[in-house]
Specification:
Elements lengths: L10 E2 L3 E3 L2 E8 L10 E5 L11 E10 L9 E10 L5
Antiparallel strand pairs: 1-3, 2-3, 3-4, 5-6
């Protein structure tokens, strides 16, 4: 997709399962913090319905592929902790 043509709102993927855990991807095409950047995150759906004390850790990466020049493609990895209310 051409991210520059997306509305300036959060776009959420369909919920998907990986190793019996549910996830979704959130994308915001225009960061208010950094000009010419977009935000992409891995999130836990329906976090507010999870029991107190619930937590999960994940190591993951996203790759953005340039359709113009594959050399411009970029991969970023992260290790993140998730709990019932906040991202840590």
């Amino acid at each position: 997709k051409n991210f520059s043509k997306l509305d300036e709102v959060w776009h959420l993927s369909e919920v998907f399962s990986l190793r019996d855990y549910k996830w979704e991807i959130w994308l915001h095409p225009k960061s208010s913090l950094y000009k010419d950047h977009f935000i992409i995150c891995l999130e836990v759906p329906d976090r507010g319905t999870l029991p107190s004390g619930w937590c999960r850790n994940a190591r993951y990466s996203f790759t953005v592929v340039s359709q113009i020049d594959k050399k411009l493609s970029i991969t970023k990895g992260i290790y993140s902790g998730y709990n019932a209310t906040l991202i840590s």
